[in-house]
Specification:
single chain; 327 residues; mainly beta; Porin; 16-stranded antiparallel β-barrel; 3% helix
């Protein structure tokens, strides 16, 4: 990341005998990435993450600006090519954050959901496609399907308060309803716990008026030398009985790493009666500090009727290559 310092001056010497100036400093940090994916094989019925033999290019521009008195502004702009057949760009995140003191902060706007192990952006992922538990959270934020999504991409909109205790960060949020149900709100209560070195645990609950209603999620990760181990459990009141995710990542050296992830989701709905599972194997090679190539093969087991309402990508095997550049 690079920081840009912007300084503006207003000279008043024409009106005042002694020249004076007003300087405004903005500490701006831009970053982003370009994501190029080639779907080598798609044996599913949905083609959810790209049709076989086709290419998909996306990108993101992130800008963070720090003001005085602990105030930070950030926006993340997702960029799609003109050939994508959709809007060329959308704001993934846009929020203001106020660090009240060293322990307390208040954030308002649209921001990423912290209650799932996987992150939204490709540089923060260990494989090419998201797992089923991330998909469940993402689907839970969809409003009326005839209208634009509420905060699609597993994002929240509202206020979020953080208080840092010794080893626990308490999170309390008052949000728009996850599916944008009119005149309804969602409440978030969560905790990020670091009991010992290299072990991180996050657990919490977000309410919802419709769809999945109350959603509880707990996940943990542990780093041990070159290994990373992680696990997640999701439980909802409606539609989804429960879901689990297990993953491990191993760094062979500073260039090569490999990931294995297993997902299993049990549904309880009329149109999704059977369990769905997937096993994802991925390998990553860092060509340089800012350029990586990722290969992924994913084995999906899903006997439900093909629908874009379920998590995962349907039944069958898929394979992809990914070129990822960051700046």
């Amino acid at each position: 990341m690079k920081k840009i310092l912007v300084v503006s001056s207003l000279a008043l010497s024409a009106l005042i005998v002694t020249p004076s100036a007003v300087a405004v400093e903005l500490d701006i940090t831009p970053s982003g990435f370009v994501d190029f994916v080639w779907t080598l094989s798609d044996g599913t019925d949905l083609g959810k993450y790209g049709e076989e033999g086709q290419f998909e290019t996306t990108g993101e521009l992130d800008v963070e600006s720090k003001f005085q008195n602990g105030v930070t502004m950030r926006f993340d702009l997702d960029v799609n090519p003109s050939t994508g057949g959709s809007d060329s760009a959308r704001l993934e995140q846009i929020f203001l954050k106020w660090d009240i003191d060293s322990k307390m902060s208040l954030m308002g706007g649209v921001f990423n959901n912290k209650l799932t192990f996987e992150r939204e952006d490709k540089p923060d992922m260990y494989q090419i496609t998201h797992g089923q538990l991330w998909d469940i959270w993402s689907e839970s934020t969809i409003g009326d399907r005839n209208d634009p999504f509420a905060e699609d991409g597993n994002n929240l909109q509202g206020l979020e308060f953080n208080y840092q205790f010794d080893k626990v960060n308490l999170i309390i949020g008052y949000l728009n309803d996850l599916a944008d149900t009119a005149e309804k709100n969602s409440v978030e209560v969560a905790a990020e716990i670091k009991p010992v070195k290299n072990l991180n645990i996050t657990l919490g609950l977000i309410t919802q008026d419709q769809n999945l209603e109350n959603i509880f999620d707990i996940f943990a990760s542990y780093k041990m030398k070159k290994w990373l181990f992680a696990g997640e459990i999701l439980i909802a009141d409606e539609l989804v009985d429960n879901g689990i995710m297990l993953m491990t990542n191993f760094h062979f050296n500073d260039k090569w790493s490999a990931t294995a992830r297993y997902d299993l989701v049990s549904y309880e709905s009329a149109f999704l009666a059977d369990d769905t599972s997937s096993l994802t194997i991925a390998g990553l090679y860092d060509i340089s500090r800012n350029l990586s190539v990722i290969a992924e093969i994913r084995f999906n087991d899903d006997d439900n009727q093909p629908t874009d309402l379920s998590a995962g990508e349907g039944d069958g095997t898929t394979a992809r290559l990914n070129l990822l550049a960051t700046f």
